[in-house]
């Protein structure tokens, strides 16, 4: 029997008005991964989500890439529905998300832990009944001055940040692939502090 695929959940909000927001880097990363695999997103019949399926390389691990269409705070519903549909164990689920507590340009891989006030992660942990899924944390830094963090995450990247954004999204996709191919610990050693 073929092993279960990996479920890679890009966290974000649906709709053009959110497409370039800091909160939508998860969508950006899974869209890039789909492009690498030559896969296209389409609406899934069992979940309120768009899904793209493919393999990493010839005969490599199967990935199911997910963009929940429920808005960030309800991301867990599609994640659990698809993990059940594809029979994916929680240790083969990866959430890709923006992270306020990491400087812009920094990427971190981890397994488990808290949600740090991130409503998408909170929803996933509650729906999956576990926090032991992997995370690719895309640093967006803290808001400047007294700007409300909720407004900050729903704003677009600055012109300065956009100069590096394509490179960082590409690198975040590399981090996802590294977790799938080598595990979280190997990925931490390879990518942290770089």
TrEMBL record:
<keyword id="KW-0963">Cytoplasm</keyword>
<keyword id="KW-0378">Hydrolase</keyword>
<feature type="active site" description="Proton acceptor">
    <location>
        <position position="23"/>
    </location>
</feature>
<dbReference type="GO" id="GO:0000049">
    <property type="term" value="F:tRNA binding"/>
</dbReference>
<dbReference type="Pfam" id="PF01195">
    <property type="entry name" value="Pept_tRNA_hydro"/>
</dbReference>
<dbReference type="GO" id="GO:0006515">
    <property type="term" value="P:protein quality control for misfolded or incompletely synthesized proteins"/>
</dbReference>
<feature type="binding site">
    <location>
        <position position="18"/>
    </location>
    <ligand>
        <name>tRNA</name>
    </ligand>
</feature>
<feature type="binding site">
    <location>
        <position position="119"/>
    </location>
    <ligand>
        <name>tRNA</name>
    </ligand>
</feature>
<keyword id="KW-0820">tRNA-binding</keyword>
<feature type="site" description="Discriminates between blocked and unblocked aminoacyl-tRNA">
    <location>
        <position position="13"/>
    </location>
</feature>
<dbReference type="InterPro" id="IPR036416">
    <property type="entry name" value="Pept_tRNA_hydro_sf"/>
</dbReference>
<comment type="similarity">
    <text>Belongs to the PTH family.</text>
</comment>
<feature type="site" description="Stabilizes the basic form of H active site to accept a proton">
    <location>
        <position position="98"/>
    </location>
</feature>
<dbReference type="InterPro" id="IPR018171">
    <property type="entry name" value="Pept_tRNA_hydro_CS"/>
</dbReference>
<dbReference type="InterPro" id="IPR001328">
    <property type="entry name" value="Pept_tRNA_hydro"/>
</dbReference>
<comment type="function">
    <text>Hydrolyzes ribosome-free peptidyl-tRNAs (with 1 or more amino acids incorporated), which drop off the ribosome during protein synthesis, or as a result of ribosome stalling.</text>
</comment>
<dbReference type="GO" id="GO:0004045">
    <property type="term" value="F:peptidyl-tRNA hydrolase activity"/>
</dbReference>
<feature type="binding site">
    <location>
        <position position="73"/>
    </location>
    <ligand>
        <name>tRNA</name>
    </ligand>
</feature>
<feature type="binding site">
    <location>
        <position position="71"/>
    </location>
    <ligand>
        <name>tRNA</name>
    </ligand>
</feature>
<dbReference type="GO" id="GO:0005737">
    <property type="term" value="C:cytoplasm"/>
</dbReference>
<protein>
    <recommendedName>
        <fullName>Peptidyl-tRNA hydrolase</fullName>
        <ecNumber>3.1.1.29</ecNumber>
    </recommendedName>
</protein>
<keyword id="KW-0694">RNA-binding</keyword>
<comment type="function">
    <text>Catalyzes the release of premature peptidyl moieties from peptidyl-tRNA molecules trapped in stalled 50S ribosomal subunits, and thus maintains levels of free tRNAs and 50S ribosomes.</text>
</comment>
<dbReference type="GO" id="GO:0072344">
    <property type="term" value="P:rescue of stalled ribosome"/>
</dbReference>
<comment type="subunit">
    <text>Monomer.</text>
</comment>
